[in-house]
Amino acid sequence: MRSNGDFEDPGAEPTPWPQRVLDNLWLLLVVSIVVPGLLYLAWGLWELAELPRWAGA
Amino acid sequence: MAATANAPELRTCATTGFRVDESGRRLALAYAVAAVLMLAAGGVMAIFIALQRQGLPISDDWWYRLVASHGATMLLFWLLLFEVAALYWGSTMLLNARMRAPRVAWGVFGAMLLGIALAQWAMFSGNATVMFTAYPPLTAHPLYYLGILLFAGGVLVAICLFFANVVMARRERTYEGSLPLVVYGFAAAAIIGVYSLLTGAAAYLLLFLQSVGVLTEVDPALYRILFWGIGHGAQQVNLAAMVAVWYALIGLTLGGRPVNEGLSRFAFVLLIAFIHLGAVHHLMVDPGLGTSHRIMNTSYLLYLAVLASLIHAFSVPAGIEAAQRERGIGKGLFGWLVRAPWREPGFSSLVLSVVYFGFVAGVSGVLMGTMQLNMLIHNTLFVVGHFHATVVSGTTLAFMGISYYLLPLLARRELVGTRIARWQPYVFAGGVALLTLAMLAAGQMGVPRRVADLGYADAPVGVTQFGEGAVPLMMTLVSVGAILAVVGGVMYVWVMVRTLLVGERTDAPLANLALRFGPTAAPPPAPASELPHNGLKGRWARFEAPGTYAMVLFFLAWFVVLYVVAHFNLAQSWPVG
User: Fold this and answer.
1) A27 Cβ partners below 8 Å, 6+ apart?
2) Number of A–B residue contacts, CB under 8 Å
3) For every residue of B391-445, which 3-state class applies, written as one string?
4) Number of folded domains that form chain B
């Protein structure tokens, strides 16, 4: 947490790319949906779909 | 962070120096008050649930109603309402920004309260005794599912408003550069919440459609994999919000900051990417999922999220130590800790939350995420002990700690009951420690969770093993711990309610707490690099936070010991050869 009095230096160097990545909330939102969406959900649903059906069903 | 010239209508808080938007303040206050009321209700239920174990005459039917409502009230309503309060506080006050679409936000608040009322009615009237998980083929009244859907949808809209606040704050240049770390942590919680709420909404929508006759059946395996997106995911929202609160408390109580802010941000990103995969550890005995899916997600990929927790577990105490050493407080390896402000409720809550979350909650969670070890304790009281350690000792205690600062700031009133507040974290943490350790031990002995009668009196064949040996003692300790924790909870609610009702109105609250943040706080005496390491010599003096380094080594040793003990127990249960 920073207080009100801290100002950025207007002549500061450009933001490094790793920091830009960390600052990109939309990119992080996509990652948060895609990673579990594929590894947990899609993979899990695929495994359920592959289960053999009980003959009596 | 730059003060903005674009929002002249904002008030400047005399205590923190932040610019305050009244709409955001009122909304955050309303959510925080609703959250505290939910905590009080959940605590009352906890007492009855615990005392039933000691002979309080509560029918099995009512015990299950209480357990169902206690779970939803605490895990969903209390925590998520408080987190929405934190999101609105973080995205307005901490960014000197305005609240967007306040009328929509108030409408959403009303819808969420309606959702809570519907769900509570269904649970207490005996129309939704389906427990927190609500697994089909158990069925509940449609209004239960509708209530949960209204509440979850409300949280999702609140998250959208949080992002709107952040985007507009950026556009209006109310802050420059990266988001402040605390707000970044709240953003991580919000991001984690999106996937969690979407999967949860999908799961409950299926059951709602079944309950009104649109669907004839819901596949239990499909439901379970969707449900644990929110069942586990909601707890990870709590985790990220709790860590953000930890950093906020370091700033408020010590004027400190993390020793490497970039590393802390990276740890939040690891949580965002990988923490949801831990949901599989709830499905370890699910017959539909293959071994590869379960082991890959829990025993391999989840460790990337565990790494994030380990980074925070180092960064938070290191931030405390660095802040103390900057002021030249304490000599030797741990003098900074001994002379820390233990009488400040925010600080004691912070330390107790961090220590208990790391040593008990985190380690027990990682053990449960190991497939072979999970087989020993699945569906036992061990699981209940684990999640009480995470969301009660960890998250709830951290939220209580920040409340002592947040509610007076939001209500613009002086804190009432400072003496009670100083003792409250210790009483509450002590009770929950006893409660959770006894639960973990009972679970190791095989005591099942969610069973009203451990003697199975109505079953064709009764069970005697849970009335013998150390089990009755453990169950008594569970009840004693619960009572002590509820006493701590009552102290907290008492201070909050008294502050809101009779606290002296002021534009500069928190005068009766030792705040080391804001325009009136004294700056550190000198930059850290110019200070000696307070008497430390040799190899320890090379580290910026040598005391934390020593504690981390101890923590890793503790981790290894518990892992070895757990595998030894496993070997005793399943001898090979």
Assistant:
1) A21
2) 118
3) HHHHHHHHHHHHHHHHHHHHHCECCCCHHHHHHHHHHHHHHHHHHHHHHHHHHHC
4) 1
In this structure, are residues B22 and B409 in contact, taking their beta carbons and an 8 Å threshold?
A: no
CB contact under 8 A, B290 and A39: no
Tens of pLDDT, residues B405-443: 999 999 999 999 999 999 999 999 999 999 999 999 999
Q: Alpha-carbon distance B121 to B247, whole Å?
A: 38
Answer yes or no: is B57 within a domain.
Answer: yes
The shortest CB-CB distance from B192 to any of A23, A32, A45 is to A32
* Number of Cβ atoms within 10 Å of the Cβ of B539: 9
**B120 found inside a domain:** yes
How far apart CA B233 and CA B228 sit, in angstroms, is: 7
Sort out which chain A residues have CB atoms less than 8 A from B255's CB and list them. Answer: none
Domain locations in chain A as residue ranges: 17-49
- For B479, phi then psi, to 5°, come to -65, -45
Chain A: give the shortest CA distance to residue B167, in Å.
10
Return d(Cα B154, Cα B104) in angstroms, integer: 10
Beta-carbon separation of A22 and B178 below 8 A:
yes
Cβ contacts of B198 on chain A, cutoff 8 Å:
33
Taking the C-alpha atoms of residue B383 and residue B259, their distance in angstroms, rounded to an integer, is 34
Q: What is the pLDDT of residues A2-54, one digit of tens each?
A: 444 444 455 667 888 888 999 999 999 999 999 999 999 999 999 999 988 77
Segment (H or E) for A31: helix A25-36
Burial call B298-320: b when 16+ CB within 10 Å, e when fewer: bbebbbebbebbbbbbbbbbbbb
Residue B159, domain member (yes or no): yes
Between CA B237 and CA B458, with CA B126 as vertex, the angle to 5 degrees is 105
Q: For B517-552, how does the pLDDT look when each residue is reduced to its tens digit (9 = 90+)? A: 777 677 666 555 555 566 677 777 778 899 999 999
Instruction: Write the CB contacts of B490 (distance below 8 Å, at least 6 apart in sequence).
Output: B43
Q: Give the single-character DSSP code of B505.
A: B
Helix ranges (H only) for B93-180 are 102-124, 142-171
SS3 assignment, position B294: helix
Asked whether B305 and B274 are in contact (CB, 8 A), the reply is: yes
Nearest to B290 among A29, A31, A47 (CB): A47
Residue B413, strand partner residues: B505
Task: Assess contact for B543 and B41: CB atoms under 8 A.
Answer: no
Residue B574 Cα distances to B246, B373, B448, B459, angstroms: 41, 11, 20, 28
The parent domain of residue B67 ranges over: 12-177
Which helix (H) or strand (E) element contains residue B20?
Answer: strand B19-20
Tokens (6 digits) for B274: 């990988």
ipTM reported for the complex, 2 dp: 0.91
B536: CB partners within 8 A, 6+ apart: B332, B333, B546
Q: Is residue B68 part of a domain?
A: yes
The CATH number assigned to the domain holding B59 equals: 1.20.120
CB contact under 8 A, A44 and B293: yes
